[in-house]
UniProtKB/TrEMBL annotation:
Main location, first listed in the record: membrane
Listed InterPro entries: PKD1_2_channel (IPR013122)
Domain Polycystin cation channel PKD1/PKD2 as annotated: residue spans: 5-82
Protein name (Swiss-Prot/TrEMBL): Polycystin cation channel PKD1/PKD2 domain-containing protein
Annotated TM spans: 6-23, 43-66
Keywords from the UniProt entry: Membrane, Transmembrane, Transmembrane helix
Species of the source: Polyblepharides amylifera
Highest rank taxon of the organism: Eukaryota
CC per GO annotation: membrane
UniProt-annotated location(s): Membrane
Length: 114
């Protein structure tokens, strides 16, 4: 089952690459691919820093709330929870379990992401 999803992800990436190569042949649409090429280095550095910040908050959540909340019980769950919390922002369970620590964790995460 896992191999199937890895193959499908690789397939989608290859289709996207073929689409971008095809789009590059058109003079007007080549602006998009040229912009992506110019900004690739900046995007790579942004995603590196973003991943480190998200990972740091996941580890902090694992240490602070791992024994109290199932969503922070292991690193995989903590990474998914931090990604979900950064997008959706439903902090109610976290604050209900650990009032002060939950508020500090959520407030610092919101400030660092914004």
């Amino acid at each position: 089952h896992g191999t199937y999803w890895i193959f499908q992800t690789f397939n989608c990436c290859m289709l996207l690459l073929r689409l971008l190569i095809t789009v590059r042949r058109n003079k007007r649409l080549a602006i998009v691919t040229d912009t992506m090429i110019v900004g690739a280095s900046d995007l790579l550095h942004f995603f590196l820093v973003f991943s480190l910040v998200q990972g740091g908050y996941a580890v902090c959540g694992l240490i602070l709330f791992g024994d109290q909340l199932k969503v922070f019980s292991n690193l995989d769950e903590a990474l998914h929870s931090v990604a979900y919390l950064s997008v959706i922002g439903d902090w109610s369970k976290l604050i209900a379990v650990a009032h002060l620590d939950g508020k500090m964790h959520s407030a610092s995460m919101e400030l660092s992401i914004v």
